[in-house]
Amino acid sequence: MKFKTSKKQLIKPLQSVMGVVERKQSMPILSNVLLSVSGDNLTITATDLEVELRTSLAINDASDGQITVPGRKFYDICRALPEDSDIELVLEKDKLIVKTKRSKFTLSILDAADFPLIEEMDSKQAISINSGEFKDVLLEKTMFSMAQQDVRFYLNGLLLEVCPDSLRAVATDGHRLAVSELALSEKNYENQKVIIPRKGVLELHKILDNEEKIDLEVGKNHIRVSFKNLRFTSKLIDGQFPDYQKVIPSDANNILVSSRDTLKDALQRVAILSNEKYRGVRLNLSSGLLRIEANNPDQEEAEETIKLKYEGEDTEIGFNVNYLLEALGAVDEDGVEVSLGDSNSSCLIRAEGNKNYKFVVMPMRL
User: Fold this and answer.
1) pTM of model > 0.85
2) For the chain, how many helices (H) and strands (E)?
3) Would residue 167 count as lying in a domain?
4) pLDDT-derived band of residue 144, with 50, 70 and 90 as boundaries?
5) Domain boundary at 195, 215, 246, which?
């Protein structure tokens, strides 16, 4: 196996798969990337057994073959080369030789036959969608609410729900919930629910850009996203996601409307003196006013009052301020609407005039 390319051609495709190259040495081959040469095409594949990334590029003076090389070392070598470098790779015996005009590097290899590839997709349906919309509307509006290392393994990911004319993303860690929906130009898709693992969601968010169309394939055991010369495949979590519709308040009749930035800035200031572990703040609502209070074990206190539009009874309720701030940070519009019940009820946060996404935050005792 051999081929020629340049740093400019190689570095970006190589960088795009590095996020799933394993740094731990539990399985040495997972620290490697698979290089496959066929004709004048090079395919680079990386996997951590849960997520697989595959990219391809055109090459010159090639002879076919497959090998695996240490991914991080190979990437670091290529990245450190001068920008105008031409690169030649040659397989000699049991080593890969990386050569430029003035440099030569000899890398160890492992057998390509031992590299674990995700089996072919069992795709049920394919959806073409704008990459930026998928990233901004579905992932960024929900992924912050995913659980981390929860024993309820089905919460350590994101529910993607295919509806006849829309896609819906849902995430919850048991303390808060985020739901966002994106209308599709084509209709009559088959109803389908899958849970994408947390690492897959984070990696997909990292590699998506805002320009391209993506092809989304949803199968029974895998999800695949393809665009340009990059293909992302992730295993799915085999579990039953909670009935999130039951969690969304429908009878909260205390409603405040505020500028998003005014509310967010006030919460950020008061949060400075909240308990560092529990992050609790108290909201006191009365006609036209919101008073936000916080204190900590050092007997330090913060209080701020802001004017806003409020319809409802005088109410006092506590929340984790981080959950409120992350929800407000995902709101694009200038106005925000918060619906509240009593002190034991969750609040519902929505953008004013946009019902396509919403956030639910459970109260906390203070």
Assistant:
1) yes
2) 6, 26
3) yes
4) very high
5) 246
